[in-house]
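User: Sequence for Beta-lactamase below. Tokens please.
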Amino acid sequence: MASELLPATRRALLRRLALEQSGNRVPSLIAGLVRDGATIWVDSRGRVGDRRPDADTQYRIGSITKTFVAVLVMRLRDEGLLSLSDRFGDHVPGTAVDDRQVWQLLAHCSGLSSEPAGQWWERTEGDAPEDFLAGVDSAQLRPEPRHVFHYSNTAFGLLGQLVERLRGKDFTAVLREEILEPLGMRRTTDSPVAPYAPGLAVHPWADVLQPEPFADAAAMAPAGQLWSTVDDMLRWLRFLAGETGQVLHPDTLDEMRQPASVDDGAQWTRGAGLGLQLARHGGRALVGHGGSMPGFLANVLADPAESTGVVFLANTTSGVSGALATDLLDILAEHEPRIPPEWTPGGGVSAELLELTGLWYWGPVPHLLRVLPDGMLDLSAWQGPGRASRFRPDGEGDWIGLDGYHRGERLRVLRAEDGTTPYLDLNTFILTRRPYDPAAPVPGGTLTWE
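Assistant: Structure tokens for Beta-lactamase:
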């Protein structure tokens, strides 16, 4: 491993893993942690055959597959081949969601049924695309308004068809070429490749195992087909935390991580971004996805702010507690809180940029503008709460908001008529170097301070 934990930390993590495997009678269970782009811990309990599972043992990851589908859709958007506001029927016509927008399918607020028509899809051979699409009829729509969260496996089967239509090739081929190979995830496949754990169910009242079936989901494969390993899932965690390589622009990933729908109402501890599950736990904003298929449970959760993440894989239909992933993150934070990197001076800031730093006034309210280490600007209230946003240069002299109230808005640096006094035009808001500076074009005139 690239980084070493203290023995007491490793023991505490192993104990939590062992309690889960023993107490919930899980045939095999493997978990891992990443921090700052490095794998810092992997351990396992139970057996796959006569061996402990290791970092190369495949498990089915179920709905974690959906996160890959979402990235492929966002790549299509970034290339200009679709807009998230496009009607789904503009690209894949002939279903009951022709009038739904692409983003609604990604965010589980399209009104579609949770499961596709026909038999229990997770345990039966899947339909060919034309049969699957024909089954997405009006009977598949639910009465909830579209802005309400309603998890839909069917939606991601449809999004897989969207990818295939626009790329002109099979979903798994697109996935391999655009994500798996660039990220070096060579042990993530659509069917099991040895060594792999068998799917198992544990009898609720006796220590007896029942093999679970594995079926090719065909057109529903984008909803939960993939198999993977802890090593590959740790790489995917680094992706979700921000290490996107050449696969996706970091701004697009950040867009996917923003809440689009909420699962638990006013509590807002669980929600959905664009193809990603979101959770709030202990002050952390977590992003990832769970996975469940007959014989398997899995979860990946990344904490982008702390550059940390956790994954677990298990071959059991039920039994792994929902708290395992967050408990492992809590143990790491308690025993070895992240130490921030040393501050070092930057590579220099231009005089023009330095001139912009310091206090600005939005009317009478002081705001502070700073240059960040990555060359972006940070605007925030000088004291107390206020509208805070980061801005990046647009390459033509202006700045574009990245987050907060001013996300996507344009910041322009201008000067008064005499050419000396600068002011900021932030989407019609005028910020000045002194409150209501009379030299700046503040609408409605300026005040005479008495």
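The CA atoms of residues 314 and 398 lie 50 Å apart.
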